[in-house]
Amino acid sequence: MIIHKDFSLNPYNTFGLDIVANRLAIISTVDDLHALYDNGELNKSKILILSKGSNILFRGHVTGLVLLNEIQGKEVIDEDEENIFLKVSAGESWTDLVDFTVKNGWGGLENMTDIPGMVGAAPIQNIGAYGAELKDVMVNLEAFDLLTGKIVEFTNSDCNFGYRSSIFKTTHKNRYFITNVIIKLSKEPKINLSYKPLAEGFAGKLVNEVTIKDVSRKISEIRNSKLPDPDKFNNAGSFFKNPLVNNNKLKNLKLVYSSIPSYPADNKYHKVPAAWLIEQCGWKGKRIGNVGVYEKQALVLINYGNATGKEILEFANSIQQSVYKKFGVSLEFEVNVV
Ligand code: NAP
Fold first, then answer.
1. Domain ends where: 198, 226, 254?
2. Nearest CA residue ID for atom 2, ligand 1
């Protein structure tokens, strides 16, 4: 295995920061991981697993060993009358995977069209959009245990999926390199138009007149109208998570801010759109030096020029502070800061 020295991570972080990894190995197969383990490389220094860097903010150069996930491949491993079982390697693009399944008429991923990033990152935060989540389709996954050098299988329930969360973000953080995911798709897709922008997009149509191709196309349209073109603006998508606010707290907030949007998350909590909170604090479209909030979507931070990771982080902290000051709600980062 080649370990590259002082490898530029500029193409591997969508904020476009000029960051260097002191040591980096390109992982193309699971055997590459075994080789690194056998050479004792995985316990020498801190490990960072990276794909396209669409959800990461680097504070500075990376001193440990970066494992660049480029494991490719997808295959149908089983099917029955109703379902297709697809095994997908971690280094496949999520967007390409969704397009592939939609083209084949297999339902389940269409509401998650155009979420950036790689398949291996999807279980970590249980990605989801417009009423669908990875946990609805994932059967199990395989991961390489960086500590023991063994391949371990995790079932859907082992992953303890929650709202944008799993054991790979909490109790098992940084321990596993996810190598592939098995998903179950439907040959007779059920169309989910539960989210308002989607329902509005198909107003006047009956649900059985809408196909998964229509849904996927509509979601692309919605996203393109709200999100910046990554070729023009360096950004990492939603910087903040939509907070879960407990029901009592929401009741009090509604007394002061009657128009605050909210959606039940479970018995005790409601989701509140972070974008609404940020906008109410006057941040939407605001720019300080090289960093700003995108004018059409307040969740997205933009590197307008040669911002450093530190500048972006300070800007994000200022947003957190003003939201907390006004609403008493703590915004968490969706982006990983390393
Ligand atoms: P949005 O559609 O404006 O929604 C904002 C918030 O309201 C989210 O918490 C969303 O829940 C909730 N919400 C809206 N309509 C709802 C409904 N009918 N039922 C239940 N909850 C509802 O959000 P956005 O920022 O423009 O993003 C669009 C979609 O992409 C959202 O689903 C968002 O979660 C998703 N997204 C996912 C990722 C990711 O997985 N990494 C990153 C960015 C955005 P949900 O969050 O449960 O949808």
1. 226
2. 130
